[in-house]
Design goal:
Number of domains: 1
CATH architecture: 3-Layer(aba) Sandwich
Shape: globular
Radius of gyration: 24 Å
Strand order of the largest sheet: 7-6-8-5-9-11
Order of helices and strands: HEHEHEHHHEEEHEHEHEEHHEHH
Distance between the termini: 77 Å
Helix content: 40-55%
CATH class: Alpha Beta
Bound molecules: 2-keto-3-deoxygluconate
CATH superfamily: Bacterial extracellular solute-binding protein, family 7
Number of helices: 13
Length: 355
């Protein structure tokens, strides 16, 4: 080792040692040094960091909801928990971030239910086309029904914790080939879907040519014509500027897509019961804001999309009925895989919430 380098190394070590002593001792209660375990500060004394990543950008209601979550958690944990927020897939896409949560190398993400179906198949139930009749019914089912909670309860077995549901919203088709108004218009369209077998099968049944792809690759794929179209809620279509690379939007509302607010089981298990209660409460409270912003955005941004030159096609009740008739047999094929019991319970919760 040359002398200059070893000098720098020694100086750095000294700085680290001084910083380490000062930082830890100040944070410890006066008698913590006497318990024979001086190196470890009590859990409450250490600041723990939640690295929270999402795929959508910083203008999206999902990110604004995440900022609200951060505000509540940081203020009410008295500095014990810090939330670092990452948007636009900076930490990965829905699937890779969930895998990072499982490994404990990331603490939080908020994926759509579609990719969660690859971890706990029951979650695919929410991606059954034409299942949810309205946002109001979705709220009751997702926030109040036993089955929605029972599904969250299946996540810890996968090293994941589901705090609550937020809203991605009703998904609509966009494409560059033609205005899609009827089932036959889907024929031959190359459509990007989320990574979910039911989504793929439904678009195949309609005669389209679907291909699963991570959200972060989508804009370029549309721009380069690798795919003709995609499907997402209006807020996403507007805020991700898909109108720059897509001509037509059809108000298909074919799936109501929920988000699940997820933590790594490791972070959860390392939290005190008070912190766990806070994390859950913050996720619920921030979710109320996220839903409200999302619904306002959906209304406003449809007007903006028209102004940007997109053609907007409504789906008539007859065309919708035809789409449903083509897709229902596919859903029946998937029921076993999702879990018949889960499908029945979710359908029953929807019926109850609709009354
Ligand atoms: O942050 C959420 C996104 O990563 C993703 O779920 C968005 O709906 C989405 C899609 O189409 O991938």
């Amino acid at each position: 080792m040359n002398r200059r380098f070893s000098g720098i190394l020694a100086a750095s070590l000294m700085i680290l040692t001084i910083a380490g002593c000062g930082g830890n001792n100040q944070a410890q209660p006066p008698d913590a040094a006497n318990d024979g375990n001086q190196a470890e500060a009590p859990v409450e004394a250490k600041q723990r960091i939640i690295r929270a990543g999402i795929g959508l950008n910083d203008q999206h209601p999902q990110y604004k909801g995440l900022l609200r979550f951060k505000e509540i958690v940081e203020a009410e944990s008295n500095g014990a928990i810090k939330v670092e927020t990452y948007h636009s897939g900076q930490l990965g896409d829905d699937r890779t971030m969930m895998e990072a949560l499982q490994l404990g190398t990331q603490e939080m993400t908020i994926p759509s239910t579609a990719p969660i179906g690859n971890f706990v198949t029951d979650f695919t139930v929410f991606d059954i086309p034409f299942l949810m009749p309205s946002e109001e019914v979705a709220d009751k089912v997702l926030l109040e029904s036993e089955i929605a909670q029972q599904l969250l309860d299946k996540l810890p077995a996968q090293n994941l914790i589901g705090l609550t549901y937020w809203e991605n919203g009703f998904r609509n088709l966009t494409n560059n080939v033609r205005a899609v108004g009827t089932a036959s218009d889907f024929k031959g369209l190359k459509i990007r879907t989320m990574e979910n077998q039911l989504h793929l099968a439904a678009f195949k049944a309609l005669g389209a040519n679907p291909t699963p792809m991570a959200f972060s690759e989508l804009f370029t794929a549309l721009q380069q014509g690798t795919v003709d179209g995609q499907e997402n809620p209006i807020a996403t279509i507007y805020l991700q500027k898909f109108y720059e690379v897509q001509k037509h939007i059809s108000l298909t509302k074919h799936v109501y897509s929920p988000f699940v607010v997820m933590l790594s089981k490791k972070f959860w298990d390392d939290s005190t019961p008070e912190q766990q209660e806070l994390l859950k409460r913050a996720a619920l409270e921030a979710g109320t804001l996220e839903r409200q912003l999302n619904r306002e955005a959906n209304e406003q941004y449809l007007t903006e999309l028209k102004a940007e030159g997109m053609t907007v096609t409504e789906i008539s009740p007859e065309a919708r009925a035809e789409l449903e008739s083509i897709i229902v047999p596919i859903v029946d094929q998937f029921a076993d895989n999702i879990g018949k019991d889960t499908v029945e319970k979710v359908r029953a919760a929807i019926t109850e919430a609709s009354q």
